[in-house]
Amino acid sequence: MRYRIEFGQSDANRLKAQKFRQKIFRDSEVGLDDDKFDAASDHCLIFDKSNEDRLVLVFRSRTFSSMEDILSSYSAQHYDLTKLSTLPFKPMEIGRLCIDQKVSDPFLLLSAFKYLRSLVLSSRIDFIFGCTSFAGADNPRHLESLNSLKKNQLADSNFPIKKKSQTILDIKKEINNTVENKTVKNGLPPLLKFYLSLGGKVSDHAVIDRDLDTLHVFTYIDLKGRKFD
Questions:
Q1: One pLDDT digit (tens) per residue for the chain, 229 residues
Q2: Which of 21, 65, 169, 172 has CB 3.0 to 4.6 Å from 206, enough for a Cys bridge?
Q3: SS (HEC) of the chain
Q4: Domains of the chain, earliest start first
């Protein structure tokens, strides 16, 4: 196999992930992209053995014992998840996924998603969630990409995701105001495409994150009764 994977909560893994995220998210070799959620998360690091074992992709995952506990998640900072907290699922939050832009191999993401699948199956997870991001908070192409979402890809009334942030974009309103949804080739982030391919849903609003210069949506997959292929 071309790629090698390290996974866990070790200090070494966490530090490597934070340095890599700083480089990708903030275009800086100085400092760390870190937050209070890193210590409670497992960090997945994927290395390219064909390129001097170079670190090329990272993401973090956090498994919760119940939906009530997701109120202390990273996503809960930006979205009101109170109505989700009573649902009978075993959840896992995925986040901070970033990729070395110099790598063009499509099998890199496939390797990450296959490993994610193994984590979900081994932990008996039936609810995956997280914030999926578009790079550039004010990029007008994001609006076109969000308009390409179908109305049935928005969270339904069984999964009410309420507004919490003061800086949002109302996706549902934008879709309703669009006469004909545009399809934007390669406009959606890879992680969001992956979620949607498995029947994932998104919040009816996006949050503008000035710190990371991104626009993100709350995304989830209800895996109960669904085969995770």
A1: 899 999 999 999 999 999 999 999 999 999 999 999 999 999 999 999 999 999 999 999 999 999 999 999 999 999 999 999 999 999 999 999 999 989 989 899 999 999 999 999 999 999 999 999 988 887 777 777 877 777 789 998 899 999 999 899 888 776 666 655 455 545 788 888 888 988 999 999 999 998 888 899 999 999 986 766 6
A2: 169
A3: CCEEEEEECCHHHHHHHHHHHHHHHHCCCCCCCCCCCHHHCEEEEEEEHHHCCEEEEEEEEEECCCHHHHHHCCHHHCEECHHHCCCCCCEEEEEEEEECCCCCCHHHHHHHHHHHHHHHHHCCCCEEEEEEEEECCCCCHHHHHHHCCCHHHECCCCCCCEECCCCEEEHHHHHHCCCCCCCCCCCCCHHHHHHHHCCCEEEEEEEEECCCCEEEEEEEEECCCCCCC
A4: 1-63+91-125 (3.40.630.30), 133-229 (no CATH)
